[in-house]
Amino acid sequence: MMSCLQSSWPEPIVRVQALSESGIRAIPERYIKPLSDRPNWPKTSAAVTSKKNSETSPLINIPVIDLQNLFSNDQSLCDKTLSLVSHACREWGFFQIINHGVSPELMKSARKTWREFFSLPLDVKQEYANSPTTYEGYGSRLGVQKGAILDWSDYFFLHYMPRSQRNESKWPQLPPSCRKVIAEYGEETVKLCGRLMEILSINLGLGKEYLQNEFGGENIGACLRVNFYPKCPQPDLTLGLSPHSDPGGLTLLLPDDDVSGLQVRKCNDWVTVKPVPNAFIVNVGDQIQVLSNAIYKSVEHRVIVNAVKDRVSLALFYNPKSDLLIEPAKHLVTEDRPALYPPMTFDEYRLYIRTNGPCGKAQVESLKSPR
Ligand code: OGA
Ligand code: NI
C-alpha cells in the first residue's frame, strides 16, 4: 500500500536545473551512467554511424495517425483509422496523433506556462518540493534507493483525477495562468484519453466501453508529470530519463516543439521520435498490457539530453482507479493463451517504480504468472 513509502528522500535533493545553470563543465558522478546504459552504446565507428544516420534514421519514426476520419460518415474511412491504431499498438506501442480535437492554442499555452514555471527562481519552486509519499509537487528523482544513479531532469507531478485527489492548492500559483491552464489542459486531455480507450477497446474486440469500465468509469485516475530536462555539459554520459515503461494505462505526451529527446525501443535499437507539429505522442502503459493479456505491450522508452537546449514535456497519465483489481480481460484468456498476469491494484503496482525508480520493463515482466 502507499503507506509503505518513506516520507523523505534518502539523500538531500539537488535540482538538476540549478546544477546546469551553475555552469559546471563536468557532471557530478551521481549522474554518470554505466557504459552500456549511455545514449551511444554500443559505440559504432564513425563510418557506420554516418551511414546509419543518413540511410536509415530519416525513414524511421513511430506511426503518425490522423484521427480526423474517426467521425467520418464513411464507415470504411473510420475502419481504416481504427486499423492504423491497431497496427501501431501491436507493432510499436507508441504513435503520434494529429487532428485529435485538442486545440493547438491550448497545447501552446501549456508548454509556455510550464516553461515559465521552471524559469522562476529556485526558492519559489522549492515551496512545492515533493516527498516520496505522494510524489506530488516539484521533484528531481524517481525512486528512493540510497546512492542510486540519478537522471538529468526535474519535474512537477500533480493529480488531476479523480476529483477527490485534485488539490489545486498544490498546483503552482505562478505564473498567474498556471492553475487555469492545468485545469483546461487536464479536461481536454482526459477527454481525449477516454476516446483513445474506446478505440483500443473496440480494436481488442472487447466492446467500446470495456477498458474504461475496468478502469473505474468516471473514477479513473489522471496525473500530470511535467518534465524539465536542463541542458547538460556531458550529454553522452547520462540520460534525462532512464529506460522504463509507463506503469499506468495510457500516456498522452506533449513533447517540446523545438527539442527532441524521446527514444522508443524498437527491437534492439533506440528510435528517436521526431515530433510532428500539433501532435500528441500516445503510448500503451503496463495496465493495458495486463488487461489485453499482452496483445498490446507497453514499450520501453527513455530520454536523451543535449548540451545546447533545455527541453520541456508534459506527460498525462491515464490510469485505473487505484484500488481496483486489474487483470486480463476474460475474453482474451483462452486455453491456448492463459492469463499471463495475476490481478493487482494500481496502488500496489505503482509502488514498485516509486521505490526502485525507472527499471525498463522489469516490473511487468516479473508479474508473469508461472505457467
Ligand atoms: C515520462 C516520459 C518522455 C519525455 O514522463 O514517463 O516517458 O519525452 N517522458 O519526456
Ligand atoms: Ni514514460
TrEMBL record:
It catalyses: jasmonate + 2-oxoglutarate + O2 = (1R,2R)-12-hydroxyjasmonate + succinate + CO2. Keywords: Dioxygenase, Iron, Jasmonic acid signaling pathway, Metal-binding, Oxidoreductase, Plant defense, Vitamin C. Residues 219-320 form the Fe2OG dioxygenase domain. The keyword Hydrolase does not apply. The keyword Oxidoreductase applies. GO terms for molecular function: dioxygenase activity; jasmonic acid hydrolase; L-ascorbic acid binding; metal ion binding. Coiled coil: none annotated. GO terms for biological process: defense response; negative regulation of defense response to insect; regulation of defense response to fungus; regulation of jasmonic acid mediated signaling pathway. Belongs to the iron/ascorbate-dependent oxidoreductase family. This is Fe2OG dioxygenase domain-containing protein. It comes from Carya illinoinensis (Pecan). The lineage of its organism: Eukaryota, Viridiplantae, Streptophyta, Embryophyta, Tracheophyta.
